[in-house]
């Protein structure tokens, strides 16, 4: 008989703490049952047609024994084995028959039971409502040629569970892995360290795959930890083992979000392929795409967009992915989002647009891309500040030039009556003052306080700005509340301005 580990399943006894492993050998299923907790169990390899014993429990499955006595149970199994013509040795060690030799996983305290698939025993077992069914592995697909006539374990597992498809989950390559006793914390640590073999061993040993550490790690799961660290192998193992790809930590961050934030493109791809919710939000409204855009991870952004992620979903402050990408100066991400159809004028709650925030941060490349895409160059925030005003205030000469070339209005005022020229004069940006004057900015336009650009420059001691304004023909005696620029400069102790303003 060809002994190939083709497929396997694991059934978790919901009331017993036992696991049953199944693998397919030609037209038979081989069951490996071992006790999970402390206590005794049997050892040996026997063959019992169409019967499964749930060792050391009073539950009877396909009924040959209900005893919990070790010797009595072992004796009955040996008797059944002898009746079937494939008895194990008297001490319970595996039979020397080549049909059973070395076919079970290397597990401690195991009973090996072979079941004829054609007689339906496995189907009855899988549909037993006292068991939670979980498909464990699909190994060596090419070897399935030996099993064309036998029902596959994954098909058997679905019998009776059509309305509960989430119960059936695929787990790769756990056969031959030595089970490891451990805790959920051990699994998280193994995931953190990218110890794939330990992860597999702990899973084979029955550790809860979605265990969370609520006290010390805010609800982090093993999958979240692996995704955060970018360990693709562990992520793949956990996903195929049935880890909940959308299970979030306490503040709502799911594995996909943390992988997107960190820029782990391979992990993001695995999670999306596993069905992760591409638009699952953190409690503050942040999405995976938002995180990837903010951090400039172009490959992740592109993959999420291709997967259909919501490109205009906003954070709690109203900022969309395009906004935060513009804010951080990620030209390539901004370009990708625009090409995907992101709203180029979508404003945050304070009214600022992607163009305005990019201008305020001095990101000339982003400003250029947004202007070419048709972003509104005059759209102001809730205080009336335009992109040009923001750039003039922050001192970005290149951005000011780009906006002026695009036709931005140099005289548009804020709610306080301040113009871009006023803002530049106030901050001492003399080159921007010169550029605005050349673009036709009104040099005498006062803010609501009555202060003119020259007055505010004199008050703040900006000599080069004062000189530039005077050279442009600004009236030197036009002031605020009866004070002239000369008087405010003298009062503020800016003696170097006195000569200029006299």
TrEMBL record:
Annotated region described as Disordered, given as residue ranges: 82-105
PROSITE patterns: ANK_REP_REGION (PS50297), ANK_REPEAT (PS50088)
PANTHER family: ANKYRIN REPEAT AND PROTEIN KINASE DOMAIN-CONTAINING PROTEIN, ANKYRIN REPEAT-CONTAINING PROTEIN-RELATED
Alphabetical keyword list: ANK repeat, Repeat
Pfam families in alphabetical order: Ank (PF00023), Ank_2 (PF12796)
ANK repeats: 218-250, 251-283, 284-316, 317-349, 350-382, 383-415, 416-448, 449-481, 481-502
Source organism per UniProt: Chromera velia CCMP2878
Name assigned to this protein: Uncharacterized protein
Record's keyword annotation contains Repeat: yes
């Amino acid at each position: 008989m060809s002994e190939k580990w083709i497929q396997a399943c694991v059934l978790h006894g919901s009331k017993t703490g036992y696991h049953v492993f199944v693998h397919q050998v030609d037209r038979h299923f081989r069951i490996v049952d071992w006790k999970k907790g402390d206590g005794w169990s049997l050892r040996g390899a026997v063959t019992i047609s169409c019967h499964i014993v749930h060792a050391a429990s009073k539950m009877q499955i396909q009924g040959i024994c209900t005893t919990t006595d070790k010797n009595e149970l072992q004796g009955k199994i040996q008797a059944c084995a002898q009746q079937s013509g494939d008895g194990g040795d008297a001490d319970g060690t595996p039979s020397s028959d080549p049909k059973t030799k070395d076919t079970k996983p290397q597990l401690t305290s195991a009973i090996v039971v072979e079941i004829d698939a054609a007689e339906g025993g496995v189907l009855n077992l899988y549909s037993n409502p006292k068991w939670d069914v979980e498909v464990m592995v699909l190994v060596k697909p090419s070897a399935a040629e030996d099993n064309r006539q036998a029902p596959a374990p994954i098909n058997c597992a679905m019998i009776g569970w059509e309305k509960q498809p989430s119960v059936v989950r695929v787990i790769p390559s756990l056969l031959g892995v030595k089970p490891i006793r451990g805790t959920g914390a051990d699994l998280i640590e193994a995931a953190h360290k990218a110890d794939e073999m330990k992860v597999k061993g702990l899973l084979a040993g029955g550790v809860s795959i979605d265990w969370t550490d609520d006290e010390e790690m805010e609800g982090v799961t093993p999958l979240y930890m692996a995704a955060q660290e970018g360990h693709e192998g562990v992520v793949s193992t956990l996903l195929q083992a049935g880890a909940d790809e959308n299970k979030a930590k306490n503040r709502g961050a799911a594995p996909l979000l943390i992988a997107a934030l960190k820029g782990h493109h391979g992990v993001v791809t695995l999670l999306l392929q596993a069905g992760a919710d591409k638009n699952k939000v953190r409690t503050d409204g942040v999405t995976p795409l938002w995180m990837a855009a903010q951090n400039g991870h172009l490959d992740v952004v592109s993959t999420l967009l291709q997967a259909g992620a919501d490109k205009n979903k906003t954070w709690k402050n109203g900022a969309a992915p395009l906004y935060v990408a513009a804010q951080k100066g990620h030209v390539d991400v901004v370009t990708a989002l625009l090409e995907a159809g992101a709203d180029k004028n979508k404003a945050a709650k304070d009214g600022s647009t992607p163009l305005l925030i990019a201008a305020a941060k001095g990101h000339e490349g982003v400003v250029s891309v947004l202007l070419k895409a048709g972003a509104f160059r005059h759209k102001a925030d809730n205080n009336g500040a335009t992109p040009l005003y923001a750039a003039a205030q922050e001192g970005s000469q290149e951005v000011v030039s780009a906006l002026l070339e695009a036709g931005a209005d140099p005289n548009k005022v804020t709610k306080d009556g301040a113009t871009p020229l006023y803002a530049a004069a106030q901050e001492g940006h003399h080159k921007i003052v010169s550029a605005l004057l050349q673009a036709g900015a009104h040099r005498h336009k006062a803010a609501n306080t009555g202060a003119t650009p020259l007055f505010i420059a004199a008050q703040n001691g900006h000599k080069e700005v004062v000189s530039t304004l005077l050279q442009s023909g600004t009236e030197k005696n036009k002031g605020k509340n009866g004070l002239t620029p000369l008087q405010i400069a003298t009062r503020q102790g800016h003696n170097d301005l006195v000569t200029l303003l006299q």
